[in-house]
Amino acid sequence: MAVLASSFLPSASTFAPNFVEPMSSIIGFLADTGAPFMINAYPYFAYRENPTAVDLEYALLGNATGVHDPKGYIYNNMLDAQIDAIRSAINALGFGNQTIEITVSESGWPSKGAPGDAAATLDNAKKYNTRLIERAQSNKGTPMKPKDKAEIFLFALFNENKKTGDETERHFGIFNGDGSKVYEVDLSCQFCSSGGTFEKISGTDGAARGPSVWCVAKPHADEKVLQTVVDFCCGAGGVDCREIYENGDCFQPNKIHAHASFAMNVYYQMHGRNYWNCDFKGTGIVTFSDPSYGICRYPQQ
User: Fold this and answer.
1) CA atoms within 13 A on the CB side of 259
2) Do the beta carbons of residue 286 and residue 298 sit within 8 Å?
C-alpha cells in the first residue's frame, strides 16, 4: 500500500508520482500475461498510524458504519477499501479496460506489540483473522467489483521470534515457533458459502487437516490455451489422463473445459496444492467446492 499517494478515498487513489513509471511497466506486463496484481494489505498498520481517525472495528473487518465514497461506494471494512484503492490507482494509469485480478498476498493482525500498542492484542488478532477467513470464503467482491472475488492469503502461520525490528513483526503467527498455538482459529467454514470443509487448527501434531480444495479451469478461459494445458498435464506433467479419454469416467461432457479442469486438478494435487500449481497461464482457479459429478470424481490430496 506504500506505493499509493493516498488510499483515502478509494475511488480517488493514485500511485505516488515516483511509482507511476515502474508501476505502468509492471501492470502492463501483468495485463499481457494474465497474472494478478499482488498486494500486502494490512489494516492494522493504517489503524496504528492514525488511531484517532480510524474506527477500530472498521480496521478489524467488523462491518462498521465505514466510509462513504463520493462515487457512491460504501465500505464497511478497511480491507475492501484498500483493495479498491489499488484498483483505482491501476485504472488511473489507463488500465481500466483490462481485466487485472487483485490478490491479497498477505494480510493479518499481530497478537502482541511494543508497550503502548493497544491494538496489537491476542483478542484483536483472533478477531481479525477469523473475519479475514470468513471474508476470503464468502465469494464476495468489493464495492467497486462486487462479482470479482479477491483471493486472500493470511499472514502468518508462525510467529517469527528471531525477526529483527519492531516487536510487532514477531507476532503475526497463529502458532509459536515450537508449534504450540498462539490462539485458536476456527477454519471450520461455518460462515462460508462456498462449501469448503476445514478442520479447526489445534496444533502441529498432525491432528488437524488442511482444506478440501481443488483446481479447475476458469469459466471463460480460452479453449486454445486450455488445450495446451491438457497436452502438458497429460504429457510432460505426468498426469494419468485415462479418466478423460473415451470410455473414461470423466470423458463426458466431451468439452475441453471439463477435460482441462480434471487434468489441472490432478496436476495440482500431485504437486502439493501450491497456488502457483493452479495458474496454467492464468486459466486455472482454486475452488473449495467439489467439482466432482456423477461417476466422475476429482481427487484431492
Assistant:
1) 26
2) no
Taking only Cα atoms into account, the Rg of the chain, rounded to an integer number of angstroms, comes to 21
| Phi, then psi, of 281 in degrees rounded to 5 | 60, 35
Q: 201 lies in a domain?
A: no
Q: Do 95 and 233 belong together in one domain?
A: no
Q: What is the mean pLDDT of residues 257-268?
A: 96
Q: Is residue 39 a part of any domain in this protein? A: yes
One domain, residues 125 and 58: yes
Q: How many CA atoms lie within 13 A of 35 on its CB side?
A: 12
Answer yes or no: is pLDDT of 189 > 80.
Answer: no
- Give me the domain span that covers residue 250: 214-287
Question: Can you tell me the distance from the alpha carbon of 4 to that of 136, in angstroms, rounded to the nearest whole number?
Answer: 24
Per the domain annotation, does 82 fall within a domain? Answer: yes
Residue 124 shares a structural domain with residue 228: no
Q: Are residues 29 and 158 in the same domain?
A: yes
| Residue 204, pLDDT above cutoff 50 | no
Indicate if 118 and 62 belong to the same structural domain.
yes
This model's pTM is above 0.85: no
Q: How far apart are the first and last CA of the chain?
A: 35
Is residue 68 over pLDDT 80? Answer: yes
* Phi and psi angles of residue 255, each rounded to the nearest 5 degrees, phi first: -125, 140
Question: What would the grid cell of residue 59 be?
Answer: 480496521
Domains: count for the chain: 2
Residue 169 C-alpha from the chain's centroid: 21
Residue 200 predicted with pLDDT over 50: no
Instruction: Output the domain CATH number for residue 47.
Output: 3.20.20.80
Of the candidates 170, 203, 237, which is a domain's last residue? 170
**Mind telling me the catalytic residues?**
106, 160, 163, 169
Q: Tell me: the pLDDT tens digits for 157-177?
A: 899 999 998 999 999 999 988
Please give the Cα distance from 273 to 240 (Å, whole number).
17
Q: To the nearest 10°, report the CA torsion of 229, 231, 232, 235.
A: 150
